[in-house]
């Protein structure tokens, strides 16, 4: 199927990857971006407010997309599963954020604001 001409469809936002755009995966990728050395499965689960099963399923989707790597090992004789972004995943996520920033600029412009970040986005904690 041919891709739409983005000049003819400037609001199609083709770079909003459905793999990333799902709420849980967006949170997971953001958490992993903030922790470049990776996170333990339990820490990622806590940060994203997910169950073991939900986190496992979303990790599987991200692994299949080549965005996340999961390694299993031991720490102090206890099993440890570590999750981290791949180089490809990091690049894809940054590309996604660039498109998302354009979407926010376009929405602010359409709303008649000269400020690229509408009120509320400045003060929301990250």
UniProtKB/TrEMBL annotation:
<dbReference type="Pfam" id="PF13601">
    <property type="entry name" value="HTH_34"/>
</dbReference>
<dbReference type="InterPro" id="IPR036388">
    <property type="entry name" value="WH-like_DNA-bd_sf"/>
</dbReference>
<dbReference type="GO" id="GO:0006355">
    <property type="term" value="P:regulation of DNA-templated transcription"/>
</dbReference>
<dbReference type="InterPro" id="IPR027395">
    <property type="entry name" value="WH_DNA-bd_dom"/>
</dbReference>
<feature type="domain" description="Winged helix DNA-binding">
    <location>
        <begin position="25"/>
        <end position="104"/>
    </location>
</feature>
<dbReference type="InterPro" id="IPR011991">
    <property type="entry name" value="ArsR-like_HTH"/>
</dbReference>
<dbReference type="InterPro" id="IPR036390">
    <property type="entry name" value="WH_DNA-bd_sf"/>
</dbReference>
<protein>
    <submittedName>
        <fullName>Putative transcriptional regulator</fullName>
    </submittedName>
</protein>
């Amino acid at each position: 199927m041919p891709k739409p001409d983005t000049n003819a469809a400037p609001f199609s936002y083709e770079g909003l990857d459905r793999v990333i755009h799902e709420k849980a995966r967006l949170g997971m990728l953001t958490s992993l971006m903030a922790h470049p050395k990776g996170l333990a499965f339990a820490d990622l689960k806590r940060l994203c407010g997910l169950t073991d099963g939900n986190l496992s399923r979303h990790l599987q989707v991200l692994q299949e997309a080549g965005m996340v790597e999961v390694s299993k090992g031991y720490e102090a004789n206890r099993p440890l599963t570590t999750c981290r972004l791949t180089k490809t995943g990091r690049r894809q996520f940054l590309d996604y954020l660039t498109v998302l920033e354009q979407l926010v600029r376009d929405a602010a412009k359409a709303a008649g604001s000269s400020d690229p970040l509408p009120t509320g986005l400045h003060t929301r904690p990250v």
